[in-house]
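Hi team, as promised in this morning's meeting, here are the two structures we talked about. I've kept the exact order from the run log so nobody has to guess. The first one is mostly here for context; it's the second one we should focus on when we meet again. Sequence first, then the predicted structure tokens.
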Amino acid sequence: MQKNSDLDSILTYLKKQHVLSMCVGDAQSLWCANCFYALNEAEMSVYVLTDHNTRHGALLAQYRHVAGTISDQTITVSLIKGAQYSGEMTELTGAEAQEARKIYTSRFPLAKLASTPIWRLTFDEVKLTNNKLGFGTKLSWLRDAGINTPAG
């Protein structure tokens, strides 16, 4: 059974990070990219900026399902901590895009100068590996497992 403490730990980790890797495409045209992100804790999603002219941006026009990682950079095995995720990307427009851009630019003020489209990555699943809790310890969250939003 999924625990609220898993979700709390995952959210704490996601708040401390700021870059994700995202892979998009199919078996013939798979591509990965790194993107800065801003967390929307209430929706269990993140916002990223990416242009349609990038390789991954062009693929997002065809393939909305993505997977990727968010990780610390350590060489010490006992300190390894990182998340794997899957989810759906949606390009935002109108008022929804304006609200998302406020959240994003509050984290990355320089992005106020960018006109790049803003996207929402809605997580379907997140698995956090945290070796600080014991080698290979995994904490999981699934959108459809009944714990859809952060504990209040």
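And here is the second protein, the one for discussion:
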Amino acid sequence: MHQFKQWGKFILLSLIFPLSAVMTSCVNPELTPHQRRMLTTRTFDANQDLVFRSVMTILQDHQYVIKTSDLKTGLITAEVSKNTGAFVQVMAVTFRTADYISSVQVELSAVVSPLSDQNTEVRINIQEKQFNNKGNLAASKQVLEPAVLETLFNDIRVEIQRKKALN
């Protein structure tokens, strides 16, 4: 009987620990507004016009389609759409799933604000929207992955330097 209790505890613990690890990995702690700003904002040593043009170039390099741009307000909006592909559709038919994600639309807004004559701040907001096969919005989330944002900001920094070298 004593051995059974020992094995029972072992089995129970071996089931609980992996489950708790999965549950804690699914928890995404909410960022504070300050933390979000730190992720989405960078300052560049250049005037607003140069930074604005550089942001537009980089967004197009990343296959975004510019929807609006206004140098006076510093606002740029852009988007890129992607289909999920035939594989997802085949899997949906195979498993008889009525609704499946058929496309993803990524919307981006950038605000390019002058801090001084040669100092400009850029804040980028990225929203990912998933649409099902019926065209309905299935999910929407703000993209806050540091690697994605750092790639954009680094590319903008390089483009600013390239444009400065041309002048």
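Starting points for discussion:
The longest helix spans residues 2-26.
The chain has a mean pLDDT of 81.
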